[in-house]
Amino acid sequence: MHIIDISVVVIFSLLIIGCGLSFSAAGKNMKSFFSAGGALPWWMSGLSLFMSFFSAGTFVVWGAIAYKHGWVAITIQWTMCLAGVLIALFIAPKWQKTGVLTAAEFIKQRLGLNVQRTYTYIFLLIASFSTGAFLYPVAKIVEVATGLSLEYTVIILGLLILAYTAVGGLWAVIITDILQFVVLTAAVLIVVPLSFEAIGGIENFIDKAPDDFFNLVNDEYSWEFIFAFGLYNLFFIAGNWSYIQRFTSVKTPKDAKKVGGLFAILYLICPVVWMLAPMIYRTMNPNLVGFESEGAYLQMCKEVLPVGMLGLMLAGMVFATSSSINTSLNIAAGVISNDIYKNIKPDASQATLVKVGRIATGVLGLITIIVALLIPLLGGVVEVVMTMAALTGGPLFLPPIWLLFSRYQTGKTILITTIFSLLVNAFFKFVSPWLFDFSLDRAQEMMIGVLFPVLMLTVFELYLRAQRKTPACYENYLVELSQIKPTAELITPEKSADNNHGTRVLGFGILSTGAIMLSLAAIATTGKIEITVISSGIFILGGVLVFKFRSKAVKGLINEQ
Hints:
Elements (H helix, E strand, L loop, with lengths): L2 H19 L8 H6 L6 H13 L3 H12 L2 H27 L4 H9 L1 H34 L3 H50 L2 H7 L14 H17 L1 H8 L4 H32 L11 H9 L4 H36 L5 H25 L6 H25 L5 H25 L6 H26 L4 H11 L10 H31 L4 H33 L1
Helix pairs in contact: 1-8, 1-14, 1-20, 3-8, 3-12, 3-14, 4-5, 4-12, 5-10, 5-12, 6-7, 7-8, 7-14, 7-15, 7-16, 8-12, 8-13, 8-14, 8-15, 8-20, 8-21, 10-16, 10-18, 11-14, 12-13, 14-15, 16-17, 16-18, 17-18, 20-21
Catalytic activity: iodide(out) + 2 Na(+)(out) = iodide(in) + 2 Na(+)(in)
Subcellular location: Cell membrane
Membrane topology: Multi-pass membrane protein
């Protein structure tokens, strides 16, 4: 990498970390630290949901599939759009109405403390492992770009991510998510036309592509797999404890709908744009084998981006992929603090609970680093991500969603479904191939993973409905629910000030990003016009946000006096 690229990486990294650390004073209590006071603007929460989900492996996992199989990678990601539509229409508003801080809190209210404890321990065990799968792609990107060892980058990046997540809470995660979205959107809008130019145009790209490169599905990723993976995405986005936080942190059910709707719109458009770079690189260099395909996206960027822009793209990719880690660490720490420690020490002060949350973030982060170092020994990140999806998606994330719509399910039926489904999935993945020389293909593995818990919950639902008896746990839940005030009624001047501060920090970050890109446009040898136009728009947008919300802050101070 050129010294300018390295300098840009350092500058942008400091900008991201600085924006995150600026919220160190925002986490004064549990509600503000883990849900931003329940008053996030819907568009912020929607963009953060997109970045948290999108960045879990888009560049490495889906980029590798796009390089190998072409359009199939886009078809797979379109299932996330359909899931977003269903969530916006039916599920997100229900989560917002629960008024909870975490999904574990909802399970406690609905099913009782003992069920919550068991479910929480299962969640934390799986979350610790899956978060490591998110850190690995970050290190892989840096390894491809710089040549640094994978182990070294895993450790250093893991510690950097911990720094601003542990200090700033959800506000830090949200603002840095949106900054990454701005940077990566701008960078991709530059990469795509330069990539087409490098290959000699769209027609030349199509001519050089393999014959089946634009098929919607293939033998490995069949329509059966697409259907099952679509169900998995529905369960994962609507039931993952990290993403539920995005629906419960906004003011109204209507805002929660908008969060899901924005996610769906972005996943309709973005996969087509994002996947073009590794697909084009396949026609330029078809010789990547094994784990090398995981670096196809960045290899294309190295081919076409001018000096400095590669550094900005790299930094954006690193922190975007890190977004999933931030989200998972924040919610897992919230569960430990709010749903485990608080039950042990019910008289603990808000300051103590926040401190416990920050310590928990640090411990979980260290576990994440260890797991990430083990990914190559487990078959690579594509294999690990797909396996985790099939094993845990339905059993862990469907039951809480089902509870939003059913009054009949009990703690016993939910735990039996979760534990038995996990055991069945693990049997077919690990035991059956070894004991009986029988294994499932990718589609069958995913189908059983998502449909078996659906079948179990359906059987329990029909049986319990036939009893025509509402369980006591649901009656108790209705009493608690009736005492919860709508979040919109709880918005205080302090929370409004947090929103203004958050938007000003975001504006400053966007303004600074625009300035960095304008500086790079001045020295660019290729793509000068594209970089200048896009960076000017970013600079103006940042300036407007800073000016508008600084004015609001000044007016607020005048009114207070």
